[in-house]
Amino acid sequence: MAFTKTSKLLATVAFTSAIGSAAMAQEVEVLHWWTAGGEAAALNVLKEDLASKNVGWQDMPVAGGGGEAASTTLKARVAAGNPPTAAQMLGMQLREWANEGALGDLSSVAEENNWAEVVPAAVQEFAVNDGKWVGAPVNIHRPNWLWINAEIFEAQGLTPPTTWEEFNAAADKLQEAGITPLAHGGQPWQDATVFDDVVLGIGGPDFYRKAIIEADMDALGSDTMVQVFDQMRKLSGYVDENFSGRDWNLATAMLLNGEAGMQLMGDWAKGEIIRADMVPGEDILCVAAPGTEGSYLFNTDFFGAFDVSEESKPAQMELAASIMSKEFQEAFNLVKGSIPARTDVAPDNFDACGQKAMEDIVEAADNNALLGSMAHGHGQTSSVQRAMFDVVTEHFNSDMSSQDAVEELQIAVESAML
Ligand code: BGC
């Protein structure tokens, strides 16, 4: 890292006084859920960039990984007729707000800066609604990573698992050695992140597409889905006894400090690794979640632009233009752990995990294996997603059989689609 902790601190102090001054000609109010250490550090890159353009920042943080709490607050703000200038949104949310007619139009800034040519098609599918750009994509995250504490694996003579059988064998060995195999926080979105990985790892990309994205009843009720819940049951035995309700970054901390051997989590975990001065790909290994090499689950954080007053529009446009600049996309994503939402940013400055992500996404897109993550708002509508979360979490925290879970899943999804 080019910045030492002291210079980071100084930069933050300088920035805070800058936004506090009356010199800012315009201001954006932004609702987001980036409150963990690595997330806040990445957000500072954006705040500083805007400050340098004389755009002030009014912060509206709503803590809670995955953004559930932020989504509830956002709904209340919009219902009260007081939307922020922009809000962090996952793909389906962006689509749903656009369909409600709540969003403005960023097309002029998009055209001026050729977004259509540099943003991957899978991301544009969410960013463009009815021919209009309604949000600016900040990044592309990959939720199907397995993070491994290299020192622990070496000490135990283990190699990174590539299948769920190998994962279970490694986890058994760690458990015998008194190490928590899986760092996990028992929150519905984290359970669902793991579930997405298991569905993809056991069923493969075509099965994931059918069962999750198409919500096909036969796929949801299949033997493959029974096997998925069998593996979820194994995983529920590999977490520590205090897992319930734990925030994701605290689970990542367990991995970093050697309390746990592995974590199944999106690459926002890399933001925490970097902040702990550890090296992604060396101290903490990154491999595709078991059985998912060649496939890429993705989610993008968009800044959805609300239909604001004329006087707030210039600042909103400036925010969108800044987010999409090549320089910003590199600087931000180096800190956030994701890869740029533009295809023309060189991989050179990214670490080994970032470079792998950049290669893997191209391969997956070529093989029809680039798929929206259900857990992170790109695989299903919010009502079907909620139904899936409920069943997955209920199963994880009870002794429900795999067969019963599959039946509950079908019923819940069917009624959410009505
Ligand atoms: C977002 C990430 C965020 C993570 C944990 C995901 O849904 O896309 O930006 O870091 O949740 O809060």
Task: Fill in the keyword field for this structure.
binds beta-D-glucopyranose; alpha/beta; about 425 residues; five-stranded mixed β-sheet; globular
Tell me the strand order in the biggest sheet. Answer: 2-1-3-12-6
The total of beta strands comes to 13
For the sheet with most strands, the description reads:
5 strands, mixed
Bound molecules: beta-D-glucopyranose
What is the alpha-carbon Rg in Å? Answer: 21 Å
User: Uncertain regions: pLDDT < 50 for 5+ in a row?
Assistant: 1-22
Number of helices: 19
Report the principal-axis shape: globular
User: Cα distance, first to last residue?
Assistant: 50 Å
Residue share in helices? 40-55%
| Average pLDDT, all residues | 94
Class based on secondary structure composition and strand pairing:
alpha/beta
Q: In percent terms, what proportion of residues is strand?
A: 5-15%
What layout of secondary structure does this protein have?
Elements: H1 5-20, E1 26-32, H2 37-52, E2 55-61, H3 68-79, E3 86-89, H4 91-99, H5 107-112, H6 115-118, H7 121-127, E4 128-129, E5 132-133, E6 135-137, E7 145-149, H8 150-155, H9 164-176, E8 180-182, H10 188-213, H11 217-220, H12 223-236, H13 248-256, E9 260-264, H14 269-275, E10 284-288, E11 296-298, E12 302-305, H15 313-323, H16 326-336, H17 352-366, E13 370-372, H18 382-396, H19 402-417
Parallel strand pairs: 1-2, 1-3, 8-9, 11-13
Antiparallel strand pairs: 3-12, 4-5, 6-12, 7-9, 7-10
The structure holds beta-D-glucopyranose (BGC).
